[in-house]
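Lab notebook, bench 4. The sequencing result for the construct came back, and we need a structural model before the next group meeting so we can plan mutations. Quick request posted to the team channel:

Model the 3D structure of this chain.
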Amino acid sequence: MNWPYELQIGWRYTRAGRGGRRNRFISFISGVSMLGIALGVAALIIVLSVMNGFQKEVRDRMLSVIAHVELSSYSGEALPDWSALAQQARRNPAVVGAAPFVASQVLVARGEDMRGAIVRGIDPAREPELTPLAKQLAGEGLLARLQPGQWNIILGLELARQLGVQVGDSISVVAPSGQVTPAGVLPRIKSFRLVGVFHAGHYEYDSGLALVHVDDAAALFRTGGPTGVQLKLADVHEARRVGDELARQLGPDIRVRDWTRTNANWYDAVQVEKRMMGIILTLIVAVAAFNLVSTLVMTVTDKQADIAILRTLGASPRSVMGIFMMQGATAGVIGTAAGVGLGLLVAYNLDVIVPAIERLLNTQFLPASMYLISHMPSDPQAADIVPITITSLVLAFVATLYPSWRASRVQPAQALRYE
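Done. Here's the predicted structure in token form:
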């Protein structure tokens, strides 16, 4: 090989397992350090992949019901010309769909049973362009049953169960603002006929959302027309950026809210949790990486005679430092590469590994009756894996600096005095 001799000697020290009990012990400690780095990197990749999977599952179920961006007036009143507003928003290349809506909180009652809910008035012809749930309901023919003036309603599956209603039953919807009479304020109550139920897979919407025709909602809440416009974007991850662009484009009279802001508590909690978990697991990688310090210190102590001979043959302190940096860096690269490979192998095969463990232990980690999903999702992302790899390599490199510097300071005369 035509490698520099620093690399050749450093590689030889890395794989030296013979030559006495002390060499075997140093080799064992070096192997443990590499194993620790590999397990730490693998654990970090697997955990972040699972968190990405959970985030993606919940986000997809959420966005199957709600739009990516909502435009409305700050007063909550009807928009003067919602179609012109929609056309203006569609000029942004990121916007691929628009539809009007009316939404308000109500009480839904059946006999003595009463539940709070959100009534959303939608346009059955335009809504399938925006959400997968509306597209599914349109395919099943349910949205076609929402005709203006017929006062039909579609409820979430859990909300229908709580009220004990079935398709064809009548339910009462109590609007929040009442009607002023000489006897006082009387609540506005309207009877609707249940024409269908939907199952979004997200408890918040299955238990608290009702769909009606936009004209019926406008008549019930006396808005005089749609109070907002829902938008669909080509890329859901660009919602915050596009929302800011639309806010500047549409002016101060229009309120722009993207899905990350309407669900800010959930979105921010997920981001903070993922960041903190990454920091905690990175500390595990750091501990494993700095185990290389003890390995290299023992190697330097054991190889002082070799260092002295190299120095007498003309090796510079910089070359000696390079030898031991090569040894530590090799251990870090091997450990990191093994960890990335193991982490990706497990992350991409969790759908096989987890069921096998469940069968072996005769248990279920995610009961469908308690959680939104019944399987362990995984979504490895390069945005996580690349920083993990770089961080592990940097920590391993930093761990080699002090022992390598100590090796470069060895004095040949003192090292060979007792040899």
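The chain has two domains: 5-61+267-415, 75-252.
Will bring this to the meeting.
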